[in-house]
Structures are given as C-alpha cells and as structure tokens.
Design a protein that fits this description.
Chains A, B: One of its GO terms (cellular component) is cytosol. 2 copies of one chain form a homodimer. Chain A has about 350 residues and is an alpha/beta fold. In chain A, about 30% of the residues lie in helices and about 25% in strands. Chain A contains 8 helices and 14 strands. In chain A, α2 packs across α3.
Chain lengths: ~350, ~350
C-alpha cells in the first residue's frame, strides 16, 4: 500500500478556508471582495443593478471553484463552506441578498444533499427577508454513479463550470431570470462527466488519505470529495483511461453524428498540465472517430479535489445558443474569454 | 522515508513530450501549430511580418512553460526538449528561422549550460543560413544558489515568465530588436525568485523520485529539474516557508521603500491552487509590512517541475515602462491580459 503523508502549504488546518479566501482577495482586489465576517466572495461591483445575478458555492477544496469564476459574464457570488462541507443557509442567503440587483438571482447548486438543502433554505430565507426572486438549477453531470455517499441521484461535478459560463453570459446579455434558468438547465440536460483518481486526496483536518489505493491501482468514477470510485482497476495507460471515461460519457449523452461539442479535460489538483494534454490528445481523437466536431476544448484545473492526482472528462453537446453563450466575453480570476 | 511511486496519466514514457505537444495543439488549434517533424510550436500566424519575434524553449516538464505563452503579445516560438533536457541546436535554429518576420529574433534563454550552448549555436546557425538578426538574453532569477548542478551562475526559473511578457509586449508595440532586448534585460536585472519542494518530482523515464525526502522534511532553494535544494529543513507552516522564500528574494533585490512590485506565487505542478493562495496571503502581508506596493499579483502554475509539490515566490521591481508592458494585452493558452 502506498502511504501518502500530509505535506501541505498550510498553517492551522482549521484556518485553511479563511486564509485561502484572504489570499485570493489579495491576488484579485479589483475583481472580488469578501463579505464581512463571512466566507462569501462576490464580484467587486456587486450588486449589479438591472441584471440577473448568478450565484453558486459549496464545499471548499475544489479551487478555482467557486470564487475563481466571479466576474463580468459569469458568477456574481460564491459561498465557500469548509473543506468538502456545504456553506450554511445563512451565508448563502446573505450572498443571494448581496448579489440581487433587482432582477432576481439564479442559484447554481451541485447535487449533494447538504448543498441542495442549504441552498433551498437560503432561497426561502432571502425571499422572506428581502423580497428577492430566487430560482435554482441542480447540476448532476457525473455519469459514474446513480446514487453516492452524498447524493440521491447523480453528483454535480466539472460540468458545473459550463453551467456557470452559460448562465452568466445570458445574465450579462440582459436575459431575465427565466431565460437564465432555462439556458442553465439546457447545459445540465446536455452535459456529462466522468473522473478517475490515481491517488486519494488528503483533507487538511484529517491529514491522511480518504481512501487507500495500491501502488498499481486507480479508481474509476470518483467524485470530488474524496469518495472512492465505482470501480478499482489496475493502473492503465492514459489512452486506456481516457477511453473508459469518454465511452461512459458519450454513452450517456448519445450525441448525433456530426454534433458539435465543447470538452473539458479537468485536473483534480495534483496532476500536472502535461498529463492533461496527453488525455486531451486521446479524447479529441476519439471524438473525431465518432464523427463529432469539437468546437472548443478546455484543458486545466477547473474543479479540483484538493491534491488528488487524476482527471475528469466532460462533454457538452452544443446548439447555436450554447455556442454563442460560451463565446460571450468573460473576465474572472480563473477564466478569461475575449 | 516516504516512497512515492510513479502514477501518471501517460502512455509510453518516451512518448510523453510528443503526445503532450499534440494534445496541446488539439486544445488550441487556432492559436498554435507544430512545425513538421519537430518539437517546436509556434504562433499559428508565425512569422509575423514587420515585428521582432520573441522565442524561448528548454526542457519539457515545466508546462505551461514554454508553449503555453505562445500568442499575440508574448512568444512567437517555443522549442520543447525532452523532459528536463535542452532542445537541440537544430530545432532551435529551425524555430528562429520559422519565426523571423524580417525584424530579427530575441531568444530568451534560461541559464542552464545545455540551453545556453544550444541556443547560442542555434543563433549562429540561423544567422548563417538565413541572414536573420539574432539577439539573446539569459535569465538567472533564482537567488538560492550561485552555481548548481546544471549551471554556472544562477539558474533561470519562474521570473522568465515576466521576461516573456515584457519582451513580447515591446515587440507587439513595434519596438526594434534593441528595444526588445533592452526591456527583457531590465526585467532580468530586477527580478528574483526562490522555491521550495515538499516532495520530489518523478520523471517519466526514471519512474522514481529524483531525490528522497522524509515525511517531515522539505527542501528550500530547489530548482525546476528535480535538483535537491540548498537546505533541507523540517516541515514548516506555510507562513514560515513564505517568510524564508520572500526574505531571500527581497534581500537580493533590496527594493526602495515605496517601490511597486509584481509578484508570482508559482505552483510546482502537484500543489493545489488553494495552498498557493495561502502563500500569497502571507507574501502580500510581508510586502505591505516592508512598505512595498503590489501593482499586480499572479497566483497559479506558471513554471512547474512535473508533479512536484511546492511553490516558488517571484518579485519583480517595477518602473513605469515595465508596468505599461505588463499591462499590454496578451492572449495565449496560459495567460490572458485584456
């Protein structure tokens, strides 16, 4: 058994989220600000009057998710819970109210029981306290499992980034709350993801791996919270891993031949970019073989799981509206589209 | 002793660079292209007529360096050697000639003996074969060691990214070869970096760590090629590590009180963004205490060392010209400034 020990650039484990958020604001003081006594970050200029706000959040440990996507054309607010722990309903409600510019707020929720419950409660609180219109979508793009440790139904993982991008663009273009919710749901209906772990992550508080993996073993179908996957297999080549992930994703989506897609090869936090490019090479070759046309391919760390080594593959089947919204300019700490 | 085993998303170890470059072109087909039978990537539209070209390169394993910085406002060409191995003089010469738009080519070289020798030979070859004007600068920003395993004098590390940015901006603004070389040298004269490793990296060919570190040990003053550092110390907190790195960097630069600086907290490849933000928090607090003013702060993986866990701290002391050139718009796979 490979024993991984905790070696992290942190101070007190209990201070990780607080200090990480401060360090992020210190890096992007013109773009984001932190609400007082809160783990909520918002666009520096929030609330933006006359625009629907798009907010998200969830447990920490997935950086640059969520606050990395704050900015014009994407998110207005991001609530950070402790590592792998939902933010409280009070903080989410505070975020919703701080971001409302009079046209309502869309909450983008990843499908975990804690997140869904706290965001729903927060939406009700915000509606009661300040008469804001609140709508929600629940992202469930992980094709690996139907139910998991933390979910009823499929988990929300890296496909969430496309939901943020598309909803944020529609809001920026002046869409009303129904429009913004509709396009967010369109992404959810057309996106699928599956991931693999070469190593477990190590949480700061626990200080040891959340699951054990042998030297020559990997997990297929992992989530982003240190859950083990659905299948433990012997170490395979990058091409074989990419085939397994991509076949499951495409079987779920079943796109028509000739369909245009956007893809993400997402690093889990401890895997270098060079390896993600090797995965992207095989992914694009498989899509080509299937007669699919890649309209845009993203490669990088978009939704991580602390220091886990591994990756996920996301495919979104596009139409003209989604292409236009993905191409809409955005400027955030983690993503810039010009 | 902690034993780390090779778990990588790769196929044949000998194919890593070739497949990684293909995967990068597949992700950015409108931005970069690969020269035939070569590990050189260039801007899609190279050569750009009437503009000085800026080229760089070196061993692979530092992604997104070098090809991630190809594009308008930054690099015209990037030559990739095998992992931690200099590209050949022939490939570099081919790159110089492919990128020359008639106004000459600046080669940005990191100070390693193999790189310096091969780039210098390449420059002479290119001048003989196609009468191109070639100039060079040698980056040596690592304050940790005076001489190292691979260098006479200081090593070139993450400060190189600022050299690419500033030289590329001056070329994009229409500067001549002397101007471009002058501002590149100005960055080199005003930038300093120091790094730390929590774990060794593992090279694909060797498949095991390049140095051994105990469970509770870290290395200070590491390079980017799996060299051990200059000092092995017990694991410290993020704040203590940041203090050690930053104090060495500032002692070297000795900036005047009130000076404006740009900073990079750079991840070594296996360290998640959340930890880099925690380092940035302390760095910015230290700069503030010293009466320095941060004009721009970058946090992310800019120049990595495969899957090494750790980070480096870079500080560049600015003047008005450098600020203007850093702010110049750039659009590359790894860096966008609008």
């Amino acid at each position: 058994m490979v024993t991984r020990h905790m070696k992290k650039l942190i101070n007190e484990p209990s201070a990780v989220v607080d200090e990480m958020l401060d360090g992020m604001v210190a890096a992007h003081p013109d773009e984001v600000r932190r609400l007082e006594d809160s783990n909520v970050l918002v666009r520096r200029d929030a609330p933006v009057e006359g625009k629907v706000a798009v907010v998200s959040g969830g447990g920490s440990g997935h950086e640059p998710t969520h606050a990395g996507y704050l900015g014009p054309g994407m998110l207005d607010g991001a609530a950070a819970g402790e590592v792998f722990t939902s933010p409280t309903a009070d903080e989410v409600s505070e975020m919703v109210q701080a971001c409302d510019g009079g046209e309502g707020v869309l909450m983008v929720i990843k499908n975990y029981e804690g997140d869904v419950m706290n965001f729903e409660t927060a939406g009700e609180l915000a509606e009661m306290e300040s008469d804001v219109d609140v709508a929600k979508v629940v992202v469930n793009d992980d094709v690996a499992v139907e139910d998991s440790l933390y979910t009823s139904g499929r988990r929300g993982v890296c496909g969430t980034i496309f939901v943020h991008k598309v909803a944020g663009a529609m809001a920026d273009e002046g869409g009303d709350l129904d429009d913004v919710q509709r396009v967010a749901q369109k992404v959810i209906d057309n996106v699928a993801t599956m991931g693999t772990a070469l190593t477990s992550c190590i949480t700061p508080e626990k200080g040891e791996p959340t699951f054990d993996l042998g030297e020559d073993e990997i997990e297929l179908g992992i989530g982003i919270h240190g859950e083990p996957g659905v299948e433990r297999v012997e170490m395979m080549s990058a091409d074989e891993i990419t085939e397994r992930l991509t076949e499951n994703v495409l079987d779920d989506l079943d796109p028509d031949e000739g369909a245009e897609v956007a893809t993400i090869v997402n690093g889990m936090g401890g895997t270098p970019l060079s390896e993600l490019y090797i995965v992207n090479r095989k992914l694009q070759s498989m899509l080509d073989d299937r007669g699919l046309e890649t309209w845009d391919a993203w490669v990088g760390d978009y939704m991580t799981s602390l220091d886990m080594q591994g990756c996920s593959v996301t495919v979104l089947v596009l139409d003209d509206e989604l292409k236009e919204l993905l191409a809409h300019p955005v400027e955030t700490p983690a993503l810039t589209v010009t």
